Amino acid sequence: MTAAATPDVPWVVGVDSGGSGLRVALAPAGGDGPPRTLTSREPVRTGPAGIDAGHLMQQLGPMARELIDGAGGGAVAAVAVGSAGMATLGGDLRERLPAALDGAFGTRRLALAADAVTAYAGALGQRPGAVVAAGTGLIALGTDLRSWRRADGWGHLLGDCGGGAWIGRAGLDAAMRAYDGRRGCSPALRARAEAVFDGPLNELPGKLYPRTDRPAVLASFAPEVARCAPHDPVAEGILREAARHIAEAAVAVCPSGTECEVALTGGLFKMGAPLVVPLEEELAAQLPAARVSVADGDPLDGAVVLARALAAGTLRLPHDGRMLHLP
Amino acid sequence: MTAAATPDVPWVVGVDSGGSGLRVALAPAGGDGPPRTLTSREPVRTGPAGIDAGHLMQQLGPMARELIDGAGGGAVAAVAVGSAGMATLGGDLRERLPAALDGAFGTRRLALAADAVTAYAGALGQRPGAVVAAGTGLIALGTDLRSWRRADGWGHLLGDCGGGAWIGRAGLDAAMRAYDGRRGCSPALRARAEAVFDGPLNELPGKLYPRTDRPAVLASFAPEVARCAPHDPVAEGILREAARHIAEAAVAVCPSGTECEVALTGGLFKMGAPLVVPLEEELAAQLPAARVSVADGDPLDGAVVLARALAAGTLRLPHDGRMLHLP
């Protein structure tokens, strides 16, 4: 059990809200021990006013209360909420969340962050540098602590170059080429696609296009590309091109003038060496001064970093009303 | 006015059914003059049994009757229907259309063709060769008159490499790269995208992803890529890569052993020299024995070719139950 907070050492609450649900973390404002966490599988609704502040509080209120009670009670000094779509869909949160938090926990200290910002803070804390956050999609975010720079994150039809859906789509393209005999084909990827999607590949369009989660379906094939890469030159080439795109996004956001710290975070990098080795090579070529690491902390850890800094008055990451907003 | 058919020289009916509606052509079975045509803007419905034969006949019956009456009457010797999705969604047509045509026109002579087959027949008639049909998507179809070979046509997430959506998407990727400062960017394409999509490019994802006609939206940007190509190396490079993919599809389906006739058909090639010149160069490199032409005839012309051959007993294109089916 982590140290309980006293009225002098209150709690902070970090929140990570996304397509797969809501995660809440409770941590001592002053400590650095692991937070207590709870997860809800119900994604916060998005309505005409954007991300629904009422629906968020319906879940966050009881979850945070349960965590606080489980830890022996205590006050809340600050809350940080990271969410996908915060910049464009955060209007209702900006407007209604401060009063709602005041009512529930007696604090109006709130940070509203894009999920890329919580990913950044989870990976690099409050140090300057660049973070590439990649799962189904891919976005790069960098800061010199004066302003944010963002690259890609435009979705599977306009970018997300080198992300999970991008890699999976390139792998399936190579599989289809093996099916119909075009150049650039990979018999190994064809065999894996037939196994994973359970049938001949002329049936794959009929299985993919009717679905509403097409980017996730594409991304589900990315690990197969990584699995084939050690013995299949087409798969290896796909991951090398992905690495080049990822490095390009990192270059675009790295603060200039100094040795840059580049952190890789998100589920995509769990595929390990087949992607990370060519990516380290690409970064060495495109950003020779960079120090590259795979991040330990995730966006929920980042929300806790933001909430602690807010509580302590030590927030150094730039707040600009879009990427990171203090209502 | 074309020559009226007599009971000895009856009519044939060609049909082209697709996402934008239904086109019907009436032509003398024996002649080669231009057909009379009618167009309906109502696409034939697809139901649980596939393309709805009843809905097709509801439109085709009156349209063909109007054409026949306008031409002075006469009998129908054969009907050919080309449709998108025929191979997978043609079950209801195969089952119910022969009896329906018999009731309406007194003929059971019917050819059901994939739209790629009517595109082929419209471009090359009944000669062996290869046809690339490209608009929003892209498919290549070839035959040695013994069997069909098909390449690509897998849709905007699995292929259609070099088609309209593919080119538009690559152009918008280069525009987004100019917006956020990544390598491979094109300021010219960024300017065109801001003009065409009416605003800064960080708003483009919010305009594109909610739509249901995303491939068409992407393809709408392809002409801008062609327009930029003469003075923008990134746009020029996109069209050169498109040309390489298109040539790869043609190579995969070209009948081997002889000098191959390759015809290009569909709206994509209306963009002219910026795409056609690099494509001719790619085909010269990948298929040195090919004779390349841009087709005169379209899929509706191809349906008339099939119907005439069926009426005359001179059908040479292979029928295999999928690409071309004679119920």
Automatic annotation (TrEMBL), chains A, B:
InterPro entries for the chain: ATPase_BadF, ATPase_NBD, Euk-type_GlcNAc_Kinase
SUPFAM superfamilies found in the cross-reference section: Actin-like ATPase domain (SSF53067)
Superkingdom of origin organism: Bacteria
All copies of domain ATPase BadF/BadG/BcrA/BcrD type, residue ranges: 13-277
Protein name per its UniProtKB record: BadF/BadG/BcrA/BcrD ATPase family protein
Species of the source: Streptomyces cavernicola
Lineage: Bacteria, Bacillati, Actinomycetota, Actinomycetes, Kitasatosporales
